[in-house]
TrEMBL record:
Top-level lineage group: Eukaryota
Family matches, as InterPro entries: BipA, BipA_C, BipA_GTP-bd_dom, BipA_II, BipA_III, BipA_V, EFG_III/V, EFG_V-like
UniProt GO BP: gene expression; response to cold; ribosome biogenesis
Domain Tr-type G: 90-285
Spans annotated as Disordered: 52-86
Compositionally biased spans, kind Low complexity: 67-81
GO molecular function annotation: GTP binding; GTPase activity
Pfam families in the cross-refs: BipA_C, EFG_C, GTP_EFTU, GTP_EFTU_D2
Annotated GO CC locations: cytosol; ribonucleoprotein complex
Matching Gene3D superfamilies: 3.30.70.240, bipa protein, Elongation Factor G (Translational Gtpase), domain 3, P-loop containing nucleotide triphosphate hydrolases, Translation factors
Source organism per UniProt: Ensete ventricosum (Abyssinian banana)
Protein name: Tr-type G domain-containing protein
């Protein structure tokens, strides 16, 4: 009898499962599994196996044909207690779809909505329906968590689409309070990626049931056996229980709207996925007769309804027009009245008179509600444990615009406008922090990463704000008199021909490689590094340059470790405008020999503005507004001026480019870079000061001679 054995010890990760363990197609051929634990020398030993459905099943039997899905010990205890106190709602399932970026979460949700007949047959539906934000559609990523629901065989399935980028992990952490299970979407070629580890870790900590969806199974280089084995290893590394390791596997193609229990035999629709949700996701346990309790996990704002609180009702009943008590974690409460109630049906919100426990709803009428507060019964309500997210790792300074072009394009330019907008962001963005800076017009904004703060900058810019932003800096800590800094796991997927330059680049940024493997049959490799967050600042553009735009970089926070030493992130200086004015072709023709320019003829510039990249280390001031001298000498032929195309840097590129003594000027219509006047004047001595010092020294010499 064959048996797949996985051993996890305190000395290292578990060995990889053999691929043959995933090839059982007949339930009668599936091996009998034995699970037991021995606490000897701190070692945990387990013997999992894989059943005919492609998922590990510690309690499988040779003649068993039904599929047993993962349920956690926490869920079992809650279920046993609920039998005495309450009941379960069989007509509701609450799930969150989590995955690494670009693994197909939003596309899979699109297919689920279409097959659930959410839209009319003649209705025109755009791709990535859940990405309704303009920034999300432009960048092709999910930034905010969104709610929707579908009906399948009389059961309402509440679905939460979550971001996949590590910088928006706070969105994932807070919505996991509203669900009992997750769909973990994994790419059929890439397998588990850094963000897959992060979201799975959070789901396991909450004790949620997990259904693994191997997406994009129709790719030519798909390798489902490797992906399942790698995912099982990830469960073991994250100390999942045996019940959690008993996950159901569904193979799907989100773009085609197909799913199945086998990679070679997909159904014509997503029926197997819907059946797995009903079978494997636990029913919400409710206390119908208990006092009302609802933890606010998200908020939205409507011009007519005001602030809208979103969360799952844990106990009791919410009714429209009733008075409730809003409780916080520090036992401070206030009273409020519910003006309107909504539940999610299909792709929108539907007004209702009351909401039963176990459902996800939206509450209007409490304009000062905050994420993490509890809407409770007026007389006997108590606060639920508040939502806690991981601490930010990167900070940037925001200040008012001090350039000569201030007020030309922006609507909100004062420090009061900037302060109100930044502190208003904290109401829904729990992973971000805002502090007052050294001066009254400077504020320090901390976030999960550069992209996390850049999205805030872009939103403020589109709202009409005008301000300046400093370079990103990591948040350091001192523990036991030791300086620590954040480290991240960087995963780079690239063609093998560019492996050398990328490895050299990561090595200069203090990165340490710990894994390298091939990906599919497309001639690409996957390398993993542990690297300081400082080394990743400005890394994305550098990797794209050395790999000719073919590399894909993904990062996720790993933890705080000892200071890695000095890191040089930029070898070239900047070209700085010498005076105010309008650029001319004559001046730019001479300036382009010094490096690459950001500007074109006819643009307005000011003294101290960065107009290009110097080809050598150190900054260089030059005149880009000089005009050709007019003379009375006629020329038979005018000199032809040929200018190179200027570099078009986006907001993200500018944030990555600037260094300690530089700033980014952000306006609704323009993005400029300039030298920080406070630091730039110190680095370059004034000519008048040099003259005075020279006169004083000469005077001293004359006095000595006399």
């Amino acid at each position: 009898m064959e048996m797949a054995i996985g051993i996890r010890t305190s000395l290292g990760p578990s060995p990889r499962l053999p691929a043959s363990a995933n090839t059982y197609r007949n339930p009668r051929e599936a091996p009998t599994s034995v699970c037991f634990f021995k606490e000897i020398l701190g070692r945990r030993v387990s013997f999992p196996s894989l059943n005919s459905r492609g998922c590990s099943n510690p309690s499988a039997r040779p003649r068993r044909t039904a599929t047993r899905c993962s349920t956690t010990s926490t869920a079992k205890e809650a279920a046993s207690v609920s039998k005495k106190k309450s009941m379960t709602r069989r007509d509701v399932r609450n799930i969150a779809i989590v995955a690494h970026v670009d693994h197909g979460k939003t596309t899979l949700v699109d297919a689920m909505l279409k097959q659930a007949k959410v839209f009319r047959d003649n209705q025109t539906v755009q791709e990535r329906i859940m990405d309704s934000n303009d920034l999300e559609r432009e960048r092709g990523i999910t930034i905010l968590s969104k709610n929707t629901s579908i009906s399948y065989k009389g059961t309402k399935i509440n679905i939460i689409d979550t971001p996949g980028h590590s910088d928006f992990g706070g969105e994932v952490e807070r919505v996991l309070n509203m669900v009992e299970g997750v769909l973990l979407v994994v790419d059929s070629v890439e397998g588990p990626m850094p963000q897959t580890r992060f979201v799975l870790k959070k789901a396991l900590e909450f004790g949620h049931a997990v259904v693994v969806v191997v997406n994009k199974i129709d790719r030519p280089s798909a390798r489902p056996d490797f992906v399942i084995n790698s995912t099982f290893e990830l469960f073991i590394e994250l100390n999942a229980t045996d019940e959690q390791c008993d996950f159901q596997v569904i193979y799907a193609s989100g773009i085609k709207g197909k799913a199945g229990l086998s990679p070679d035999n997909l159904a014509d629709d997503l029926g197997p996925l819907f059946e797995a949700i009903l079978r494997c996701i636990p029913e919400p346990s409710i206390n119908k007769d208990g006092p009302t309790q609802m933890l606010v996990s998200n908020t939205e704002y409507d011009e007519h309804k005001g602030k809208i609180a979103i969360g799952r009702l844990h106990a009791g009943v919410l009714q429209k027009g009733t008075e409730v008590k809003v409780c916080t974690s520090d036992d401070t409460c206030r009273f409020a009245k519910i003006s309107e109630l909504f539940v999610y049906e299909n792709f929108g919100r539907v007004p209702v008179e009351q909401v039963q426990a176990g459902d996800i709803c939206a509450v209007c009428g409490i304009n000062d509600i905050m994420i993490g507060e509890t809407i409770a019964d007026k007389s006997s309500g108590k606060a639920l444990p508040t939502i806690r997210v991981e601490e930010p790792t990167v900070r940037m300074s925001f200040s008012i615009n001090t350039s000569p072009f201030v007020g030309r394009e922006g609507k909100y330019v004062t420090s009061r406008n900037l302060r109100d907008r930044l502190y208003r962001e904290l109401e829904r963005n729990l992973a971000m922090k805002v502090e007052d800076g050294e001066t009254s017009d400077t504020f320090i904004v901390s976030g999960r990463g550069t992209l996390h703060i850049t999205i805030l900058i872009e939103n403020m810019r589109r709202e009409g704000y005008e301000f300046m932003v400093g370079p990103p800096k990591v948040i350091k800590k001192y523990i036991d008199d030791k300086l620590l800094e954040p480290f991240e796991i960087a995963t780079v997927e690239l063609p093998e021909e560019y492996m050398g330059p990328v490895v050299e680049l990561l090595g200069r940024r203090r990165g340490q490689m710990f894994d390298m493997q091939g990906v599919g049959s497309e001639g690409t490799s996957l390398i993993k590094y542990k690297i300081p967050t400082r080394g990743l600042l400005g890394m994305r553009n550098a990797i794209l340059t050395v790999s000719r735009g073919t590399a894909v970089l993904n990062t996720v926070f790993d933890g705080y470790q000892p200071w890695a030493g000095d890191i040089s992130t930029r070898d070239q200086g900047s070209l700085v405008a010498f005076e105010d004015g309008s650029t001319t072709s004559y001046a730019l023709f001479s300036a382009q020999e010094r490096g690459q320019l950001f500007i074109s003829p006819g643009m307005g510039v000011y003294k101290g503005q960065i107009v290009g990249i110097h080809q050598r280390p150190g900054d260089l001031s030059l005149n880009v507004c000089k005009k050709k001298a007019a003379t009375n000498i006629r020329s038979n032929k005018e000199q032809t001026v040929v200018l190179d195309s200027p570099l078009n840097y986006s907001l993200d590129d500018c944030i990555e480019y600037i260094q300690e003594d530089e700033l980014v000027e952000v306006t609704p219509l323009s993005i400029r870079m300039c030298k920080n006047p406070k630091l730039y004047k110190k680095s370059i001595p004034d000519q008048s000061d040099n003259t005075i010092n020279m006169i004083i020294s000469v005077s001293h010499q004359i006095i000595k001679c006399l």
